[in-house]
Amino acid sequence: MKTFAMMAIGISAATLAACSTDVLPRERGADDELSTGVSESELLTLLTPEPGAAAAEYEASTSRYRLFGVQISQVPGESFATLAETSTWATRNLRVGELLGRNLRVTAITSEGLELTGGVSARVLPVGQDVLLRIIRHRFDQAAVHRGRHHWKVDGGAVAQLRSRYGLGVQTEQVTLFLEPAIRLIHLQAEGVFSRLGFREGDLLFSMNGKSLTPDELGAVADRMAEQGSTVRLRVFREGGLHEFTFSVEAP
Amino acid sequence: MRTYQVHIPCGVAGLLLCGVALAALPTKQSNAGDSMSQGSGANGWPGDHVELSWVQGTSSNVYSVYMRYRELEPSFTQQPESISGAEMVGGGNNFAAQAARICAQEEKPQHVSVLLGANDVCNRPRSSSPDATETLYSLDTWRNALRAGLDQLAACLPAGSKVHVLSFPRVDFLYNAGRAKGFWCSTIVWPTAGICRIVTAETQASRRAQIGARINEYNEATRAEVSLYDSNANGQNPRGVHFLSDWQGSIEEGHSNSSVGTYVFRAADINGTDCFHPSVLGQRRLACATWATNPDGAGVVSECFQ
């Protein structure tokens, strides 16, 4: 048992050391993303493992990240750090306690940078420098992957599994905006289908593939998102703008 | 790139010195931007209306940058990359992501307009601290996001191309413009649609002014960065792409109506449906003002806003 624990600590320390200490020169290629499997022993180091999930349901990817900056607030919990993944330039605003994948947690945000902790080790990512991070994700975490502009690739199988395990994970209310009925998403649960598909608190859904939606039709939206080969076009009002989001349900 | 002859009126003596000036005109433009560059809601209907965009529009009611270039160069084309909801910093369609898409275009543009920033402010939650700006991106964050895009454009655009990085409007003034527009803006539309609540729900003028001051700082930081790239003082632009900003200084420093970022949008400049996006008149003013600071363009910015 002691040997096993030592091995787990060793793996987690090695994972973090490999990811966050490498401050890279700009000359190195931007497309150095590397995806690998996750070993059974590595599962022991995960901070939030998916209950009952086997190693084959996880994927580890090593990518280059750049901390754009931090915003320090006097109010506890309001400080945040903006981290960009440089192959797509997609960013996340991270707060203390939030996870990066299943293996790294934000443990501090200071003027020095962003502190990530995985297993027993912690390292600080400095502002403006590129680092390699090895992130372990479960299949559910990638149920919808952004493909640029307003387009997402959806893993229909993952959506179906999420639905049976966690449900839609959203409450709704009907509102009228611009003289049209819409569904406002409220109280999204992080594990639920709608949160995993990238929907946010306050999103207003008007229609799916040209047809108006009512609150009791959200299940139909999830059904379509689980149908291999289907394309779902949703008219969504988010953050001040009306957008058409396209979800292509493809094989993972 | 074609050459375009600009005949400058010269006196007899001046003719010897002045003659005919030659300036290179682009044949293709692209742009990075948000819903403002998509003409969203300009005609009062929600959603994109690109024909009414200040940069890519085809409507004579707006007289866009694209149309102005077409008058000078009939074969002028465009391949826009702006997208509604985009930020300078955040999300998957930020400036760096749009710059990557511009660089991926088969035929590279020789002119790129950049207008981003409003969503960086409007998408942030309200701060519960005495400092209303504590939920906004820091200046470091802004600069690094800007650099991530400018680095790519400097590396991929043809030498001599122009990148026109515009200051963005003071969204803190939206509060007054919407109230002047009609009671429905502040009582129905803004709360129901969640429009820019960091300012539209902020009743204290002093806190809105704090946000306005941060916008000035973003615009000033943009000018400083753009200058570093243009001169290659940072070593990131060895191929000689021309970078320029329209920012001259803030309203508070006495530079009212000198740039996009120093125009105080009024009721007529925003549409009456979402009480947020520029109306056709607002888009026309943007087109006029950006053309006035475009090195290929003409006009006086302050006259565009009268």
Question: SSE layout and pairings?
Answer:
The complex is a heterodimer of chains A (252) and B (306).
Chain A: H1 2-20, E1 23-24, E2 34-36, H2 40-43, E3 58-71, E4 80-85, E5 90-94, E6 99-100, E7 104-110, E8 113-118, E9 121-126, E10 130-138, E11 144-146, E12 151-155, H3 156-166, E13 171-177, E14 180-186, H4 193-196, E15 204-208, E16 211-212, H5 218-225, E17 231-238, E18 241-250
Chain B: E1 2-6, H1 12-18, E2 21-25, E3 28-33, H2 65-72, E4 77-78, H3 95-103, E5 111-115, H4 118-122, H5 139-156, E6 162-165, H6 174-181, H7 183-193, H8 197-200, H9 205-231, E7 242-245, H10 280-293, H11 301-304
Parallel strand pairs in B: 3-4, 3-5, 5-6, 6-7
Antiparallel strand pairs in B: 1-2
Polypeptide structure, described:
The complex is a heterodimer of chains A (252) and B (306). With 252 residues, chain A is an alpha+beta fold. Helix content of chain A is 18%, strand content 42%. Chain A has helices spanning 2-20, 40-43, 156-166, 193-196, 218-225; strands at 23-24, 34-36, 58-71, 80-85, 90-94, 99-100, 104-110, 113-118, 121-126, 130-138, 144-146, 151-155, 171-177, 180-186, 204-208, 211-212, 231-238, 241-250. In chain A, the strands form three sheets. In chain A, strands 11, 12, 13, 14, 15, 16, 17 and 18 form an eight-stranded mixed beta sheet that branches. In chain A, strands 1, 2, 3, 4, 5 and 10 form a six-stranded antiparallel beta sheet that branches. Chain A is globular and about 50 Å long. The two termini of chain A are 37 Å apart. In chain A, 39% of the residues are buried. With 306 residues, chain B is an alpha/beta fold. Helix content of chain B is 38%, strand content 10%. Chain B contains eleven helices and seven strands. In chain B, β3, α2 (65-72) and β4 form a beta-alpha-beta unit. The radius of gyration of chain B is 19 Å and the shape is globular. Chain A binds chain B through residues 66-75, 78, 82, 84, 86, 88-91, 93, 127-128, 146, 148-150, 175, 177-178, 202, 204, 237-244, and chain B through 35, 40-41, 46-47, 83-85, 89-94, 96-97, 100-101, 119, 122-123, 127-131, 134-145, 148, 189, 192-196, 273-274, 276-277.
